[in-house]
């Protein structure tokens, strides 16, 4: 008797897509070239506008396809050689193959498109600093596979780790540590107990925080401390049972901004671009045009990065932050800077009732929310009726949403600035000033 074929055994393996030529006429904010074939969009990672390339479809879709770059047939005049040897694999600096002036133009075009319903293109200015050597913080992932040890950053669209030897966007002090730390980690007998490693440079120097997944012997810790002394950095341990390293006030880190001192925990959020942070705070003070009559509300204030700069010129400032630990840190910084016209409050700004402790008479509001934006709190801001609202955002789409609400409720966009906090990457930071419209003032 003849057996029927097993359908699972005879199923066909999908053949790879053919390699085709494409003309690139656009660029996404993630640095993917845009081609159009018979009305359908094809995104090609690494291709630039004006280029003719060969590429292979890797992910076909109903509305668009994604393709892998195979060859550049006609290169763009704006194409440059990436400075980093890990560029092809690393998922961080997506724009290194594009000349820096065109990186700025690309981000400006994308930001203008995001804000097209609320702001004119003429209002957009650019705040920028150095192209490389700006990043003062980095987290290095670790992975042990048998005898193989990888230390570095995540690959593009992958959970794999690029075993890095350099990172030109890091400050020179941090980049110079990568090779010795890489060598030292790979000779550590208890490397499997290391979770990740955080590098930080601030006004106290360089520090390294080691996250442990299990206990580390005293002998190995002594070797780490000797290594830290040899290379001139402070060493912190986050034990396996700690959600955050326990530190004394003297062990806190420090940076200065706008003639004020900010002490912070090495695991707390700070702006990673120190040069741009200085410029951003200065621009915020200038745009708000503060006077001794102003009562300022600083939302999502953190440890006081903007708060104390505002307090030097305003009558008083109220800073609101979610985490009580951050508020306590901000109060310590207030004492360090000798500023009595500041009041810090711990409150959840995603809840409308969190405005209950805010007094009447607020004249200006500053907010620097996380990526999700501040939509839930906006009605409270409207009720306060400030003359100016200054919004700093790391997510242009939520900024556009929130700004549309503010514009619909009596405010108009006065100024917008693209802040180039992360050169060579796809990230865009924005500062937007909104003023009470003339109708609202009457």
Description:
With about 450 residues, the protein is α/β, with parallel strands linked by helices. Helices cover about 25% and strands about 30% of the residues. It contains ten helices and 21 strands. The strands form four sheets. The protein has an eight-stranded mixed sheet with strand order 6-20-21-19-18-15-16-17, sandwiched between helices. A six-stranded mixed sheet has the order 9-8-7-10-11-12, with helices on one face. A five-stranded mixed barrel has the order 1-2-3-5-4. A hairpin with a 2-residue loop joins β10 and β11. The longest helix is centred in the N-terminal third of the chain and has 15 residues. It is flat, with a radius of gyration of 25 Å.
Features:
6-stranded mixed β-sheet; single chain; flat; 8-stranded mixed β-sheet; alpha/beta; 442 residues
Share of helix among residues? Answer: 10-25%
- Beta strand %: 25-35%
Q: Overall mean pLDDT score? A: 92
Low-confidence stretches: 1-13
Query: What is the strand arrangement across the widest sheet?
Result: 6-20-21-19-18-15-16-17
Rg, Cα atoms, Å: 25 Å
What is the structural class?
Answer: alpha/beta
Shape: flat
Largest sheet report: 8 strands, mixed
Structure summary, number of beta strands: 21
Helices, by number, come to 10
| End-to-end gap | 95 Å
